[in-house]
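Our preliminary data section would be incomplete without showing what the modeling component actually yields. Below, a chain of 94 amino acids is followed by its predicted structure, encoded as tokens that our downstream tools consume directly.
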Amino acid sequence: MFKHVVLFKMHEKQRMPELRDLLLTLPGKISQIQKIEVGLNLTTRANAYDVSLIIEVLNFEAINDYLVHPYHQEVVAKITALCSHLCAVDYSPL
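Predicted structure:
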């Protein structure tokens, strides 16, 4: 099992539910996704990110297939308009 984790910093925090709903459409369009978890930040810390995404896929090849999938690319374009910054990591749990 491999994980793809992304943290998002929103331009406008009140649009966090919009991003959550967009991210939750991914499994219905991209078959490589085995499991998805989306969270909205609950704190008011200035250095905190606003939204988190954790996706589980079967193997490293599935991560690459997910990243280049046309629907993922469509979602990335929308995310670019909603977010000021993001960070990502792909890994296999120990």
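The mean pLDDT is 96. The beta strands are 2-10, 33-40, 51-57, 83-91. Preliminary results of this kind motivate Aim 1 of the renewal.
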